[in-house]
Task: structure prediction
Amino acid sequence: MEEVAGGMAEGRAPLLEMRGIRKSFVGVEVLHGVDLDLRAGEIHAIVGENGAGKSTLVKVLAGVHAPDEGTVRIDGEEVSFTHPHAAQAAGVGIVYQEFNLLPDRTVAENVFVGREPAARGIVDRRGMERETAALLEEVGETSFGPRTLVRRLSVAQQQVVEIVKARSLDARILVLDEPTAALADHEVELLFALVRRLQERGIGMLYISHRLREVFALADRITVLKDGGLVKTLATSETDSRGLVNLMVGRELDGYFPPRAEPGDLGDVRLEVTGLSTALLRDVSLQVRAGEIVGVAGLQGSGRTELARAIFGADPITAGTVAIDGKPRRFRTPRAAVRAGLGFITEDRKLEGLALAQSIADNMLLAVRTVIPGARKRRAAKGLMSVKDLAAVTELRAQGPEQEVRFLSGGNQQKVVLAKWLETRPQILIFDEPTRGIDVGAKAGIHDLIRKLAKEGVAVLMISSELPELIGMSDRILVMHEGTVAGELPAGAGESDIMQLATGHQEAAA
Amino acid sequence: MTVVDPPETHPRPPRERRSASWRRGALASPAAPVFGALIGVFILAWIVVTIRGGDFLTVSNIVNMLQRSVALGIVSAGQTLVILLGSLDLSVSQVISLSSLLAATTMDGQSANVIPAILLVLGVGALIGLANGLIITKLRVNAFIATLGMALIISGIIQNNWDGPAGRVSEGFESFGYTRFGIVPASAFLLLAVVVLVYALLRYTRFGYRIYAVGGDEEVSKLSGLRTHRTIVTAHVLCSMLAAVTGLFLASRLGSGTPTVGTDGGYDLESIAAVVLGGTALMGGRGGVLGTIGGVFILAVLDNTFNQLEVNAFLKDVVRGLIIIAAVAVYARRQGRDA
Result:
């Protein structure tokens, strides 16, 4: 009641008001009571590091996730969306970060999916195509028409379709989640023009972007999220990019990290990548020595994971070489990479790293049983650790080796993944987000384990979105931006240095 | 403050344009290759049968093939709806058997009972489809398991109540199965009507658009605000109702209801085979009912040819199996090239 009164006092209720939004997934709270409001005709930017909770907040607004706590009001009236359809009907349009198009349907069919104009159930195809053509013209897109199949469009063209789709909703609240990630500069300009035109019509827009330059160019106000909580909402005029970066990352370097490698710990170059290019990478070169932990920083979509996948033989390489212990190798399958002594601890444990319905023991032995050639297996058998030893080494907390992996906590699941790779005696380990979704205590255990492996001579490449982790663990940090290495920083580099390289926003801060 | 660098020119590859233009017109229909294959199979069958001294390109033989295609054609049209959606229905055979029994026993030879019997059968079909759809969407049971379970349930009910042919359809209803307009059997018009209806449904209605959308990507459809569950349930209702229509048609042909008429015809797997042979992707989102009818005709021509050549029944199945696998492999290649 008080909120309503407060809103009235200002004149009228804001277009959108989100209060105290909390949301947990499988026991981990990812939004800790976030407040956000949006006025008609306002562009409100939401910034924050990866995992800050931006996308989850958007999905609450979209009716994809129901909040555990908190209220959403539109024009002062409380709403509760149980299905995206309801959010759409209430005037909320969303352009998602990941593409939401149907490749086998035409542009017009995609734009109007689920709300095809129809008279008595018969779709007015011509009208739909005419309207789509008009919308395409409005955004200045002439390279394709309403009848083109979406699968024949480039990524940038698909982004245009997404925006046209959102525009056609006649939404009063429009959310743009990283709308420029796939656009060329002139296309960004067209997008900006469109956004400003929509603003003049009184549409309120939430603009999520990693590109601070865009945020400063467009936004009236900026909300900073961090680790699922609200840091601050401020007027764009009150801040600059340095101030914003500090708000985004500004936290104490908390927690304990194991000591870094001494110069004497480092051995020969184990992994050397030269001029590596794939569909998404351009000319990436790097070296990792035995005993060294090299951190890889970068925003989502900067090519971090793609780099790991390319080295590991999971994505085709178009140019460049990967050398292991000085010998050039080109892995055509992950299996070949594993046989050569590589291990890859993937970002998504549930999807790629574990067979969830199988036991701890089965998972731990999965890689050894299926991939390692017989001779090496027999040789290794003598020194092979038992499942019990592995559990001890990784400090796994579980009921027993037969427990199904899906019943373990995130931290313990990750330990099972680690154990799986330890058993193959890897020479090179690539970690992608080794501690995502893991509680603080388990994090430290995994950090210790990674350092211990390095001490034993394993070359470690560690991708992480968590800057404190990267800074605390790495002996060197590579920062990726748009598919290439934007720079290298020594151990103990500052968070803002990393963020500036990662956002491609070096010049503004310099 | 300049925000954006001066625009660069980004030449776009003209590749897509060219391939798009020749795809228009008759060739653009996704069913075109299926009918090409049908013509090929037809000519091959004609040559082989004629050499071996059989009758192939005669009016009676063609009418015969057409008539044999009606039942499979109607079920497959329904099956097309659910497969396009990314689902499937394994309970159609049992629905056909049950429908033939319900129709024949309700009519009991009285023409006054024809309309109530038809309504009852369609109603039961709709309820079974509704149950399938709700089990798949609300209980989140995989379509394969849901409809297989439904098939078992119906089969149990049939076996509990009937142990052989039962009931009698009215004379007027029975004559439908044999009526001809000139040389064309009336049942061919029934098939034509069903195909036109399903084609129009898929091509012109919102429901049809939504089937393609949900089959293309259920999550994307949902995020776009489409109420996917409704679409899935409706498609299953229609699929089961078309299976019920098939049961009515077979009751009319046979004069009575038979507990095994659906399973003997193997309509569950045959209809799925016809759909994939017709170029509809088993994962959904791509294809259409015209291709399915092409697939049904291909199967009919093969059947007819094998019968005339008196080919061993087992060899017949081997050849059919090979053709279905080869067809899907060809579609997979085409798709890979397109993507």
In short: Chain A has 20 helices and 22 strands. The interface with chain B takes residues 62, 64, 83-85, 87-89, 94, 96, 100-105, 109, 113-116, 118, 121-123, 125, 143, 148, 151-152, 154, 165, 184-186, 188-189, 192, 213-214, 217 of chain A (CB under 8 Å).
